[in-house]
Specification:
With 144 residues, this protein is mainly α. It has helices at 2-15, 19-43, 46-65, 69-96, 99-126.
Length: 144
Amino acid sequence: MANNALSQYRQNDILNATPLKLVALLYEGAVESISKARVSLRAGQIAERARAVNRAMSLVNELALSLDRSQGGELSVRLADLYAYIQKRLLEGNFRQTEAPLDEAERLLRTLLAGWQRCAEQEASANASFEPASPEYQPISCAG
């Protein structure tokens, strides 16, 4: 029952999230999955570790696919390279069954998550007076 309530809460959080919050949720999911993979690795739970790494890989891939390279400039290129590096470290940790690469991937994603959370907080405080969102596409930006 509690798992169902948590699932409904997360689904509601996603449906009502701003684009910045959605990116933060992807980071949170990836960090959580890597943490589960590390626990599973220590416990010798091969299938659970592989599942958690695969989920983290999928979430990082989604982050990479969401980059707008036409408007993101050098930042989007660097993020794409960093996401590729994180995925490489996830694969290495899973293949070699060692925690160090998983730890590094988690730390990198936590750092990025902290930045996106700050952007989301800035957006929330800037939008304290409610204005309807524009139906047109607008790239996500943390620039003030």
